[in-house]
Structure prediction request, 130 residues.
Amino acid sequence: MKKTIVSFVVVGLAMSPVFAKPLRVPLMAENGSGESGYAMLYPHGARTNVVVHLRGTPNGIAQPDHIHAGTCPNVNPKPAYMLKPVKHGTSVTMVHASLKQLLATPMAINVHESPSDLRKYVACGDIRAH
Prediction:
């Protein structure tokens, strides 16, 4: 009897969306910024944890980043999902959308130069299954 109960618990955990495979999104430099890296999207059921890693970021500047509708470099300027700014090359945000939702239509992660220059993009990456 104990084996059966343990089996159901293990199978239940393996099927949980929290343990689904994360998605890696390459972020390519734009506008000669020299900033590049990747974002990891970790599914958590109806939410997704977005972790951005960038190299070549300027010291002391928090760079806004968002998920936008569209593909690089032609994203919709209005963000679909706000992300916490990239500081010291990293940003971590729990987005209230499932990974499945983020993959349903063309979306991209876009990093801006600074809060005072949102029109200049420094890195961008399309969210798509590989």
Notes: The two ends are 42 Å apart (CA to CA). Residues 2-15 form the longest helix (14 residues). Residues 54 and 89 are 5 Å apart (CA to CA). The chain has one domain: 20-127.
